[in-house]
Amino acid sequence: MADEKKTALAKQVYQTLCEAIESRNWSFEKDEEKLLVHFGVRGDDLPMQFVLVIDVERQLIRLMSPLPFKMSESKRMEGAIATCVATFGMADGSFDYDLEDGSIIFRMTASFRESVIGEGLFQYMISCSCATVDKYNDKFLAIDKGVLSITDFIEKK
What we know:
The chain has 157 residues and is an alpha+beta fold. Helices cover 43% and strands 27% of the residues.
């Protein structure tokens, strides 16, 4: 019974997610079996990819945006520092950094456990994530390319 309730609520949340993206007149890919959507957005500089997943078991909305590059091996420590600095004090979301391969992913979650979720939550998550990723993705790339020092990044954050 509990699993049926979780699944029914998750499917309802997924439908609301799809309606929220459709209301923006954006094209996106749906995977109704996995309760997942994927879409791309053109920012001020680099293209951004987003995946939103409705996690039935944990009753979570999970948004992820992997950056389209990896920090080179020689810049991995600067990448770790930059992602920590960018994330510190962030109102919502965070950058996850893999020190082994240099990948950076922006992540945001929201619980829908025993909740009614409206389109407004998805509009907020998408807008906030787009703005945050767009603000930092080119700076992370500039650090990787040696165009921006970590000291300048910290001062200009």
